[in-house]
Every structure is written in C-alpha cells, then in structure tokens.
Amino acid sequence: MPDLNRKPPTAVRRALRREVGFGCPVEGCGIPYLEYHHFDPEWHVEKHHRPDGMIALCSTHHAKADAWTVEQCRELKQNPHTAEVSGRFEWMRREVVAIVGGNYYHETPKMVVFRDQPIIWFERDERGYLLLSIRMLSTSGQPRTNLIANDWEILGEPIEVDSPPNGSFLQVKYTNGDEVGIRFKKWESAEKLREIHPRILVLGDQITFPLVTAEVNLAVGGTDIRFSSKKSDLGGMQMQGNVMSRCGVGLAFG
Ligand SMILES: [Zn+2]
Is residue 1's pLDDT more than 70? Predict the structure, then answer.
C-alpha cells in the first residue's frame, strides 16, 4: 500500500477552509493563505484525512500548532475568529500577458470592458509595474469579491475561496454561479509556453523570458457571460485564441 498523500483531498480542503470562514481562525490573524493541520491524531501518529481531526491555518500558525491541545483546536474549529478576508498578489512586473477567456492581451491595459466600464484591467504604478484589477459582474444584488491594483477582498457570502500559500492563485465561487479565478504564472522559456499557450508566441520579439502571465476566469451567474480557460462566451458569441497587442481596449461588450 502506498502512503496516503500528505495533501488532503480537494473536498476535505474545501470543507476545512469553509469551516474557518476562508481565513486563519486564530484571533487577530485572518490570513487567507491556508494550510491543513492534523491534530487528532497528529500526522506522525496516523496518516489520515478526517476533517474532524484537522483544521485550516495560515503557515505561521500551522508551524506553531503543536502548542495547542486537541480541545483547543476543536474550540478554534467551532469558533473561528475570522473577520474580513483579504490578500494581495505580490506579482509586480512591467510585462504581463493577460489570458482572459482563451484570448491573449499584451500591452492592452483594458482587457475587458462592459458598458464603457473596465471590468478586467491593468494600470501601472509609478515604477511602471502592472497591477491587475477585476470587478465582478453580478445579477445577485449582493456584494462581490473585488481585486483592485493587486489587492483583493472577499465580499458577499462565497461558498468557496481557494488561495494557496504560494499567493499565485485565487478562486472564489458563489451559490448563484458567480465565479472568479486568477492565476499568475512564470514561464522560463518559449518551449514551456509552446506546450500550453502556443498562440502567445506570435508576439515574437515583443515578449521577453521569463514571461509572466495572468490568467483570469470569470462567470456571471444566471447569464451567458463566461470567460472560461478555453473561451470567452458572451451571449451566444464565442471568441478564443485571439492575440491582441497594444490595443487600448481588448474586448468591449454590453
Ligand atoms: Zn494565522
């Protein structure tokens, strides 16, 4: 029998994140970059993934968690102190290719515009670094997560927030189907990029390696607006594989 993988199954991780309100439950912490601590029994005693004996914690409190008794861990699970949950993408580069709904945007500051308002866009700070912003559209009338200049804030009542400790990924989902996903990734060479995103290579000498991409997925529940990893779906119109470079606005709709 192979050893049980130390990484808990997706459903267990999701349940543990949700239990603590998607942030570290230790009073005064709330950091959203969560790991999974085995306390009853501890991992070295038994390799298990029973959520009852596990708790989601930030990496700092995970490292300190041996100080707590089983009862104290249980108390934290039942009464998490998580308040608002927010984080930040630390990726700051002067060149980032955005991948939105299967289309590619290079040096195109307003990637997606809805009714004359940008909903996915970059702006440069005083050092020239590109900072990403996303405004979620929703028909729910409820607040939604936003990303402003790389800083994100979880709003409304999501059913899922996934923000692993490496800080390169964020996914938020709501019951009505609203969804946002953001992933930053560094590509060391054209060869690596060719395997996954060969279309970007049409930019030729305009891009330099290592290249950073920011992939954004977005869905508006109850509508046919969806930017998935493969394509952009906008009310019956589909787009994918387009490469836009040095356009003021990439895709405008509504
Ligand atoms: Zn913590």
Answer: no
